[in-house]
Amino acid sequence: MELVFFVFWVSSIVLAGGIASSKNRFAFGWMLLAVALGPMAMLAVGLMPSWIPKRQAGEAECPLCFGLVDSRATVCRHCRRGLAREATGPALVTRLQR
Ligand SMILES: [Zn+2]
């Protein structure tokens, strides 16, 4: 019986990490919480919405990888591809920089 409980607890830790990761949340933190709370942490992260980083002033979204970059950047810091400046934000440079 104790073994069943242990397997159930460990499964909820792994699942909490997997669910957190799929929702763009901090998987290790949720796994640590699941060590203490077990299936409660798994349920909590399962009910939470996906985490979407908020765009701040001076930031723009890369049209290629959708990572947030400084609106003045000419190269995306995530995918390292060139960005062209437009009034509305970054756009793809037709001739990609290599
Ligand atoms: Zn990018």
Count of spatially separate domains: 2
Ranges with pLDDT <50 over ≥5 residues?
94-98
Number of helices: 3
Average pLDDT taken over every residue: 85
Judged by helices, strands and strand pairing, the structural class is alpha+beta
Gyration radius over CA: 20 Å
Shape: elongated
Total E-strand runs: 4
Strand order of the largest sheet: 1-2
Largest sheet: 2 strands, antiparallel
Bound molecules: zinc ion
Protein model, in words:
Helices cover 42% and strands 14% of the residues. It contains three helices and four strands; from the N terminus they run αααββββ. α1 (2-22) packs antiparallel against α2 (27-37), α1 packs parallel to α3 and α2 packs across α3. The model is unreliable at 94-98 (pLDDT under 50). It starts with a helix and ends in a 6-residue tail after the last strand. The longest helix is centred in the first third of the chain and has 21 residues, at 2-22. The chain has 98 residues and is α+β, with helices and mostly antiparallel strands. It is elongated, with a radius of gyration of 20 Å. Strands 1-2 form a two-stranded antiparallel sheet. It has a two-stranded antiparallel ribbon with strand order 3-4. The protein folds into two domains: 2-47, no CATH class; 59-92. Bound molecules: zinc ion (ZN).
